[in-house]
UniProtKB/TrEMBL annotation:
Coiled-coil region: 52-79
Protein name per Swiss-Prot or TrEMBL: Restriction endonuclease type IV Mrr domain-containing protein
Classification lineage: unclassified sequences, metagenomes, organismal metagenomes
Protein keywords: Coiled coil
Coiled coil keyword on record: yes
Length: 511
């Protein structure tokens, strides 16, 4: 069973509960925890006035509970005063009866010790009664009442000594008893008044604290209402901004602009030393220009269409590349490109043009495409004749090179996938290499270091626990097992069996 505890090291809180002994620390915390739980369940970015109303209801409930505590406190106060007075009067009555009996039946020299003894007995009874009636957590009240009782006890002893030293007659005895009666009655009255004063003072402090809490809570409610109104305005503004953003995304120009920004960030992460410019708002420049040291400049056209890119866009891309006099990379993010294969390479006026389908902002695909342009452009420049713009390479060779590059790219992607699956496939194929019959036979002659799953009914050897469980469910030897009785044991005898090839074998049969 778990143990729980409540502790507090705050001086202000400790002083409050010290002043209000009748308020239970745990009960008050439970009330506030319930309030905070209700607040935390409903409090979010769109606080409403209903939360403030609910908080007010909780405060009213708290006020009702505090009023109940106050009523209980008043009732306890009345009961304490009545019990204290009744007990004290009862002790006083018993004391006077004993004192009168002592005075009437003893000589003067024995009166003083006996009266002092009964004074001590009365004092002990009163102390016990005070500890039982007065709450133990109210140390100040307890201490003050005990001081009054000690003063009463000393006064009673002094009066007893005066009586003994004077002439004892009926008048002196009556005066002595009346004097003690008045002093005890005054002590009872003073103690009751003291209890009433302290409890009333605690009640007033409690009311003051409750009023302060109520005022503070109402102020917090007003603050929450202001926050709620502000949050509602902010939420409406946020919803409007999101709605406008969604509407903009439906427009192709805005959708393309967002895709360009994503591609721009990818290029920045791939080529930290390159100059990357978004030029989509300029005429005949494509979307992005990639400029690097000792590398060809690449014009990048990016399309984020929900269908295949049409041929007119390809023609515009070729025109922009011709005007800028650089290599070009055409990226279709979601679908293909009309009349162009994936990773198709074209040569246009000494520059390399590459078309890539279904890029989906894959940084690896983009990097491979740019590497292909760089390498192809480097090799292409090597074979250009210095005195002209003609090439020493035939068109058929270029077509073959184009096919080889496309094959290279497709094979590279396929090999990456194959390498990932290679380990699992090899493990599966190796596990299939097994000699179950040979293993079963050798297991009856030799011990194996590896653990095997062997059926105890028919010596079947399974590959794993699953195979053994499946075998046992239908094992015929298991079904034919019977309880051994007092019948003689079965004796096995070897029998020699000859075959047509004169190959002999030993076989064990059961008779």
């Amino acid at each position: 069973m778990e143990n729980f505890s409540l502790t507090c090291n705050n001086k202000k809180v400790w002083a409050f509960y010290q002043e209000h002994k009748n308020i239970d620390f745990e009960s008050m915390n439970i009330i506030f925890v319930d309030i905070m739980l209700n607040l935390s369940q409903d409090m979010n970015s769109s606080l409403s006035n209903n939360i403030a109303a609910q908080l007010l209801n909780n405060v009213k409930s708290l006020q009702s509970q505090v009023n109940s505590v106050s009523d209980s406190l008043n009732k306890l106060q009345a009961e304490t005063i009545n019990t204290f007075g009744n007990k004290f009067n009862e002790f006083k009555k018993e004391y006077f009866e004993d004192v009168k009996m002592i005075l009437s039946t003893n000589t003067s020299d024995k009166i003083a010790p006996l009266v002092k003894e009964y004074n001590s007995i009365l004092l002990d009874k009163i102390f016990i009664m005070v500890n039982d009636v007065i709450p133990k957590n109210n140390e100040n009240l307890n201490k003050q009442i005990q001081e009054n009782i000690k003063v009463l006890h000393n006064s009673m002893n002094e009066d007893t000594n005066k009586l003994v030293n004077s002439t004892i007659n009926k008048k002196s005895l009556d005066d002595f008893i009346n004097l003690l009666d008045n002093k005890i009655s005054n002590t009872i009255s003073n103690s009751q008044q003291m209890i009433n004063t302290i409890v009333s003072s605690s009640e007033k402090r409690l009311d003051t604290t409750i009023n302060q809490m109520k005022t503070s809570t109402e102020k917090h409610i007003l603050d929450i209402k202001d926050i709620s109104s502000s949050n509602q305005s902010t939420q409406v503004m946020l919803q409007n901004n999101v709605g406008e953003l969604l509407k903009k995304m439906e427009v192709s120009s805005c959708k393309g602009k967002m895709s360009e920004n994503v591609l721009f960030n990818i290029l920045q992460s791939l080529y930290s030393t390159a100059q990357i410019d978004i030029v989509g708002d300029q005429k005949e420049t494509g979307d992005i220009m990639l400029t690097r040291k000792n590398k060809p400049t690449i014009l990048i056209e990016n399309k984020n269409w929900s269908r295949n890119v049409i041929q007119d866009e390809v023609k515009k891309f070729i025109r922009d590349v011709e005007i800028q006099g650089c290599c070009g990379l055409f990226l279709s993010q979601n679908y293909g490109i009309a009349n162009k294969e994936n990773f198709e390479i074209n040569i246009n006026d000494g520059n390399v043009l590459l078309y890539v389908h279904e890029v989906r902002n894959d940084a690896e695909k983009i990097r491979i495409a740019i590497d292909m342009i760089d390498n192809f452009k480097y090799k292409l420049d090597e074979i250009i004749i210095n005195n002209g713009n003609s090439y020493t390479i035939d068109k058929e060779v270029l077509d073959e090179i184009n096919k080889e590059y496309q094959y290279f790219v497709s094979q590279k992607l396929l090999q990456i996938k194959t390498v990932k699956d290679f380990g699992q496939k090899m493990i599966k194929q190796i596990e299939e290499n097994d000699f179950p019959s040979l293993e079963k036979f050798l297991s009856t002659r030799y011990a194996f270091s590896s653990s095997k799953y062997v059926c105890e009914f028919c010596d079947f050897v399974g590959k794993n626990q699953s195979a053994m469980s499946a075998h046992k469910r239908g094992c015929k030897s298991k079904l034919n097992v019977v309880t051994i009785d007092d019948t003689p044991p079965i004796i096995s005898q070897p029998i020699i069996v000859s075959t047509e090839k004169d190959v002999s074998a030993k076989k064990i049969i059961k008779k």
